[in-house]
Amino acid sequence: MTLKVSMRSVVDGFKNLDDMRTIIHRYGEFRTGVEAGLTLPEPRIEQVRVPLGPEQEDLYGELVASSSARSSSRRSKAAARTRSSACSHASRLVALHAKLDGAWNTTRRSPPSPPPITPRPN
After folding, report:
1. Distance in angstroms between the alpha carbons of the first and the last residue of the chain
2. Which helix (H) or strand (E) holds 95?
3. What pLDDT, on a 0 to 100 scale, did the predictor assign at position 23?
4. DSSP-assigned letters across all residues of 35-76
5. How far apart are CA 105 and CA 81, in angstroms?
6. DSSP state, 106?
7. Is residue 120 pLDDT above 60, yes or no?
8. CA nearest 67: which of 96, 40, 41, 90?
9. Are 9 and 16 in contact (CB under 8 A)?
10. DSSP summary character for residue 5
């Protein structure tokens, strides 16, 4: 081991990815499961449908009604699409969990900001 300083490239934020790929492919050996003699299980796709809870159903219904009301309003088409898209996004979050609606207000242009971070005392 030497303490000699040398300049090398690093992968940082999707920069220098080609250099990283070159290094990996130079030293790595890639084989399929069959080539390596492995018996891999067959991939299985299974969809599990879970019904919405009562709170989720209420919030989802409100968002869908709000979205359809906004799309039929007399606003400009672009504004109506934006509001409808916001309601659609919020309804997807509510479908995951009732508390993910974040008290979404479709009249605002963006969701509420997170609270400021306060530093810890040492």
Report:
1. 38
2. helix 77-96
3. 86
4. TTT--PPPP-------PPPHHHHHHHHHHHHHHHHHHTSSS-
5. 16
6. T
7. yes
8. 90
9. yes
10. -
* pLDDT for the residue 92: 81
**Residue 37 backbone class (left: φ over 0; alpha: ψ -120 to 50; beta: rest):** left
Residue 103 carries which DSSP code?
T
Q: Is 102 left (phi over 0), alpha (psi -120 to 50) or beta?
A: left
Determine the longest span between alpha carbons in the chain, in angstroms. Answer: 73
Instruction: Check residue 8 and give its pLDDT.
Output: 77
Is the separation of the CB atoms in 94 and 100 below 8 Å? yes
SS3 1: coil
Whole-number CA gyration radius for the chain: 26
Query: pTM higher than 0.90, yes or no?
Result: no
pLDDT at 73: 57
pLDDT, one tens digit per residue, over 33-69 is: 889 999 989 999 999 888 888 888 888 888 878 777 6
